[in-house]
Amino acid sequence: MRRLILAAALLATPIAGRLNAQSPETDDERWLADCRNGGWNDDRGRACEVRVVPLKLSGRAIEVDSRENGSVRVVAWDGDSVNVTAHIQANADDDDAARAVLKDVRINTDGRRIFSEGPHEWRREHWYVSYVLRVPRRFDLDLEAHNGSLGVNGVTGRMELRTTNGSVNLVDVGGDVRAHTQNGSVRVRLAGTKWDGRGLDAVTQNGSVQLGIPADYAAVIETETVNGRLSTDFPVTLQGRIGRHLTLPLNGGGATLRATTTNGSVTLSRR
Question: Could you tell me the pTM of the whole model?
């Protein structure tokens, strides 16, 4: 199992691959419909379930185990608590067998951790758990996945985001944010007129970088690609040789927002 750690520091008061703040019920219903309709082109039997995970934090940190193939999506809300929903899918040779597998999947909490347990996976029987977390708007996150995407919407805080095979999607975030994926895209959609916090450092090895930036946004954008093209909607004044590295002060500058790729294109879009 791979582990996802959500180190949460609750401060004062109160994505790109699209993240949005729609109602939890609508989000869950859409996922259930996709799962039950076989939206992943899997010819095996399947069973699908949405579970609300009861959670009472005993401290200021929480650890979430997303297993090998789970994704994690974090959305800010106006509450002062953490709400967790688990999306569970089981596959087997037929639907009855899949339901039997799903019945044995357990989501456990102990006041500081959330982790899943279930039957041994073999042959064509597998199960997956992805998580949707709703957290206060100022929160610190440490997220890790393996074969799954990570997304954060509307949260400001210290963030460490890591996945191996999956995208990283950031919408209206702030703070001191560090993100890395080995095989996946990095998509950042900024809001407001400046970054709230220290800055952004986002890296992908094999994937594209896409930044959506408001026209009046004040920041220093740093980006680079080793093997790919770089395009921007913003006017650029360059001297000397034009390469694949760009430092772009916008509207007087501000926090440094860095997003780079080794094998992929970079696109800076004016919003």
Answer: 0.86
Looking from the CA of 208 toward its CB, the CA atoms found within 13 Å total 12
Torsions phi, psi of 182, nearest 5? Answer: -80, -50
Contact 75, 134 (CB under 8 A): yes
Residue 240: which domain range? 185-271
- Per-residue pLDDT tens over the stretch 174-214: 999 999 999 999 999 999 999 999 999 999 999 999 999 99
Rg (CA), the chain: 20
**At residue 96, what are phi and psi to the nearest 5 degrees?**
-60, -45
Domain assignment present for residue 140? The answer is: yes
Statement to judge: residues 11 and 98 lie in one domain: yes
- Angle at 98 (CA atoms; ends 96, 99), nearest 5 degrees: 65
Q: Per residue in 144-170, pLDDT tens?
A: 888 999 999 999 999 999 999 999 999
Other Cβ atoms less than 10 A from the Cβ of 270: the count is: 12
* 140 and 213, same domain (yes or no): no
